[in-house]
Amino acid sequence: MKHLRVPCLLQAILSKAIILLVIISLSIVMLLPCKMVDATAARAPQTNVGNTDQSGKPIILANDRVVVTLQYGFEQQARYGRTIQVTAKIYNKGESFTGEIAATIMNEEQDNIRYATTATILGLEKNVVTLNIPMNRASKSMKFELLSSSKDTIVEEVIPLNVVNLGTYYYVGILSDMSTPLSYFEYFGNKCVYLDKSNFPSDYFGLDMIDVLVIENFKISSLTEEQQQAILGFVKRGGTLVFGSEAYYEDGIPAIKWLSNQNIVSLEEETSDFSVQNAKISMKEPSEFSDLLLRVKGYETLRASNLKYKEDIKNKEPQKDCNLYIGKSILGNKIISDLKFTSVEKTVTVFSTTNATKKKESNNLTIYEKVPYGEGNVLVFHFPLGMEGLTEAKILVNDGVSGKILNTFYLSVVSQVLEDIPAAVKKHLEVEQYANFDNYRVQGIINNSNSIDVPKVFPYTILLVVYIVIIGPLLYFILHKKKKNILVWVLVPCLSLVFSCIVYVMGTNTRITEPYISYFNVETYDPNTKTLEAESNVNVYLSSNQKTELSLGDANEVIAGKYQYPTFYDVIDKEKPYDTLSFGEAVNTSVLKSKDSYSLMFDHIPAFTPQYFSLDYSRELDDEVTGQVSVTESTMSGSVTNDTSENFEEAYVYYNGRVALLGDLESGESASLEECSQEYNFNIYSILYNSNSISVELGNQETKISPDRVRKNNALSMVIEEGLYAKEGAYLIGFIDSLPKEHPFSSLSNNRASYGVSMMVVPLELNTTTGDVTLVPNLDRYLKAGGSNYYDNALRYVYTNSIELEYQLPKEDEISKLVLADVFQLSLNQDTNYYLLAKKIYFYNRTTSQYDLVFRSDLLQDGRYQKVNAEDGEGDASLSAEELKDYLSKEHELKIKYEGEEVEMSGVFTIPVISYIKMAN
Prior knowledge:
CATH architecture of the largest domain: 3-Layer(aba) Sandwich
Radius of gyration: 34 Å
Number of strands: 52
Number of domains: 5
CATH topology of the largest domain: Rossmann fold
Oligomer: single chain
Structural class: alpha+beta
Number of helices: 14
Distance between the termini: 125 Å
Strand content: 25-35%
Shape: globular
Helix content: 10-25%
């Protein structure tokens, strides 16, 4: 038996060795980092923190099924308050499948929002999928997922987000193939990102992060059609497009011709080639150079203040870090007095546009033009924008402070661009500085709810008394008399059930059983495309705590948001490592985009908790609103005809502070402005919130204001102040009684508790020329940049007791008369607002170098303006061309000083609109 024991012993040793080897192998496998799990897994793997860096390189996620190259924003950077585009390039190693690509924005408050889209992932191909996500919360991470149609997880990764808030600075995108640098656009704190065909977005949402797009030495035709339309969509929605003369559409075809073909600019002469001239040019005149130095000084002072703030945070709490954005210094080791007025030798392209609202000349050559388009501006420079003779390497070596590199000509180029960024975008940045992009005024409109009818107390009181009497003494008396007290155990439950049914039926009309919405919807008519472009904001309310899915119709985009007001900086704890942050698995809201529509999924949301969404859509208008508005310094006349199928329950015509109340304007009806009540508001905010004017129901002088009236006032005020005030034209503003059927939430708007405001804005034909003279309605369009920050030209508020403003009027204008706003058109019930107006208006006398008191508002009892020492009696609020000679410089500069009440600490007043009349072209 001894020979049998040896094999058995060897077998036992071998078995133990195999077992030990298996244990060691399993241990090694378990110690290996597990990033991906095969799609056949029944359950999603545990979420891991992404091990990616934020250096701008693409994030690579790979396993045996797919390779995903992930990018978000620009250079792996998101911008607070803006929409970022997440792009996933998915290479599928196997067979095609239908997948769901999702990105969940996560934060420590555990109110995560998930954005997803379905797509067919083709086998052995590189598939590109994009998601547009708003960064309107203090998020620090994003979970990316790729799921199969059966919800098996193919890829899952948590990625740290690099989110920047620029405060009041601008984000500049540069699209160029040139070797001469354009990095000087980083002056004044701008942050630049360099773009090319490979990283240029295919829709305007991808450009939402930037404020300015500079195109120079680049062929636009090399972009796809979608990318070209993204540029136009970016400008149309408030962006600023900057063209240098070396921006081309194709070889030999300048970009300005491309814009002409798109009906954005109108060229004076349709020639195949533009002539060029070599000239020494300057963007600023020597007399304007001091304004540029003041702007540099203001920027450097703010930068120093921000640096001190960060240092204070560091000294108080060393473990904290303040992510306050601070731009690069312009001066470096120089001082303001080192900056000298400079001009440069450039090749100037000779052409001119007919629809430019601003032009600059140098040496009798047009070198710059501004053309509005939609909400944005196209800025056209007639010369190359590159810094000739310099390279990026030289700039890095000199750190941007050598006299040769710090050329004030290029400082003035950037200053001109910043000056002509649309007012709406500047206001947007101010909101982002202290809060997110969800405007608090929008919130005020959609959160101003209707009162919901509740059951009256009296019927229910009577019912309760009857119930108590029946089941109390009456039931006891009857059963006791019949000696059937035992029936009380049957009759009382039955009666309780009967009365419960009665109460339920009585409360049916007050019970909310379906989701409902509040909304603020604005449709703007585009005469070029004959469509209505809509921007809509919606709050969805659920009637229960149950998980709910809503299917929506077609829309350009639906994004979820949340009102949140953190400060514009973010103080983080450097000692708290990223991987210790807790990320909840619960997702409150999901936005799923399929091929043809959107759907929303709500979970873990208490009933009647508002869920905010914003969206864009477009629809065709069957016919047009036609009309012409003629304006002089004292009248607004004309007519409007509603040829559409829409019925406006309330309509207005607005032009430069003047509001004509048309009232109802049904389909097929016309209204004459001469027959309508007109108001002139020196301040939009004041007139719309004055309870004795537009704030009450039309024709109803009640002092009680309904929620619907308040919503309409807020909406009208917001549309005018943030959209129409900065524009030149006249507009019809109409209120529609419900959402159009094309709206993705239109079905919910029919639910009983839904409420909101839906508006339509239509541009009208405007005529400001009468005979041989033309009215220029507002000096504010010529307000020189670099001045005081104490004037809000949208609300016309001055935040001090006295302010001096300087205007640069067009040199070609032959001014015959300057006129204060037609305050005599004010209705009597607005007299109480006169205390807000500036009391004294001074003009700077170029001859005496002193300010002359020209107008004052306290001579008449009603406070209206009158010229001091007027020779032609009361009511004169104008200056003739002869009187203007002492005040208007040869360069057509005009300085005006406004003063408020002579009361200590009054500090806030409004200034009147000042117009002028010029000889017609």
